[in-house]
């Protein structure tokens, strides 16, 4: 293999740039040319492809977002779209591809692999919702952004003796809510994986108030529903002064933490190593601090594991 490509797809995540840098530099270090494909799979179809040199990925290890841009591409989901993409890859002489993104993005990679074009995935999403990896790129940074925000909310919550409902990202996976709730000492964490009825939640809030608690923080994963609806229900069940904060896309931005930069560097380098060894259709993962690889088709049949121990611990500490 003499030329490989790299693209980012789906929602951006802090650490994607560090991963692009690692793919480019590991590739060049091993003697191959590396091409950046812009705007995700859309760039594959339109041929928005450019050779990247060592200097092109300088000064990006610390930057959030993705210098390659990202997009969701309906055309690539069609056979015709994929055929054009393969033609473009051939035109540039690219023989292997690294896709940085979430599980939706990996499906595209699988399709390319099935068409005889080797693809390796790197899990990049703040949600941490990919099976068979302990962490995805961007999760740690997003978590720290959330914690910073909730620490600030706590100051005003204490001053006004209010109950705050904070909505964080995470559609099918409540990891951002679970980890930030535990790290921030939230009184209640509402997760898509663990439905708890609001009467029980209100009872717990009341117990806290009776004990002299002046405020509470309730962290809600967006997959549970709107924080505004939760606030309305709490108000209807108990006369509490509540406020809502929806953190939104602020969670997706910002300079990656050291953890995400190191993870991105390790995963990027491993992806290149695998491609050059003739591997395909695999996703790089971190398990027990070891960088490993899993068959994408196999892992797409699984669900990201829910950490029951962490949930129990959060409950134990928020009595
Ligand atoms: O998958 C990452 C994610 O940030 C989710 O947590 C969120 O639901 C979604 O993307 C938002 O997507 P968009 O930026 O397209 O609104």
From TrEMBL:
Activity regulation behaviour: Allosterically activated by ADP and other diphosphonucleosides, and allosterically inhibited by phosphoenolpyruvate.
Originating species: Sporolactobacillus shoreae
UniProtKB keywords: Allosteric enzyme, ATP-binding, Cytoplasm, Glycolysis, Kinase, Magnesium, Metal-binding, Nucleotide-binding, Transferase
Family, similarity comment: Belongs to the phosphofructokinase type A (PFKA) family. ATP-dependent PFK group I subfamily. Prokaryotic clade 'B1' sub-subfamily.
Protein's name in the database: ATP-dependent 6-phosphofructokinase
Broad EC category: transferase
MF (Gene Ontology): 6-phosphofructokinase activity; AMP binding; ATP binding; fructose-6-phosphate binding; identical protein binding; metal ion binding; monosaccharide binding
Gene transcribed to yield this protein: pfkA
Subcellular location: Cytoplasm
């Amino acid at each position: 293999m003499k030329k490989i490509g790299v693209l980012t797809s789906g929602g951006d995540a802090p650490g994607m740039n560090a991963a692009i840098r690692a793919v480019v530099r590991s590739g060049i270090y091993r003697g191959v040319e590396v091409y950046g494909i812009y705007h995700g799979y859309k760039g594959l179809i339109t041929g928005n492809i450019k050779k990247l040199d060592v200097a092109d990925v300088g000064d990006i290890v610390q930057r959030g977002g993705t210098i390659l841009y990202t997009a969701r591409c309906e055309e690539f989901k069609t056979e015709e779209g994929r055929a054009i993409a393969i033609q473009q890859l051939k035109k540039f002489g690219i023989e292997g591809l690294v896709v940085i993104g979430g599980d939706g993005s990996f499906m595209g990679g699988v399709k390319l692999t099935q068409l005889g074009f080797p693809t390796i995935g790197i899990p990049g999403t703040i949600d941490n919702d990919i099976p068979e990896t302990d962490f995805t790129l961007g999760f740690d940074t997003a978590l720290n952004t959330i914690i910073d925000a909730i620490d600030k909310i706590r100051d005003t919550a204490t001053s006004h003796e209010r109950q705050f409902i904070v909505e964080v990202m995470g559609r099918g996976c409540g990891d951002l809510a679970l980890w930030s709730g535990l790290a921030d000492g939230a009184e209640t964490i509402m997760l898509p994986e663990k439905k708890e009825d609001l009467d029980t939640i209100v009872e717990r809030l009341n117990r806290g108030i009776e004990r002299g608690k002046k405020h509470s923080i309730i962290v809600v994963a967006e997959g549970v529903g709107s924080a505004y609806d939760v606030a309305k229900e709490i108000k209807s069940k108990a006369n509490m002064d509540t406020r809502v904060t929806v953190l939104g896309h602020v969670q997706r931005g910002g300079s990656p933490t050291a953890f995400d930069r190191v993870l991105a560097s390790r995963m990027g380098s491993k992806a290149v190593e695998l491609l050059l060894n003739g591997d395909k259709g695999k996703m790089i993962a971190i398990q027990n601090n070891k960088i490993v690889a899993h068959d994408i088709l196999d892992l797409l049949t699984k669900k990201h594991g829910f950490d029951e121990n962490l949930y129990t611990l959060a409950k134990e500490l928020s009595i």
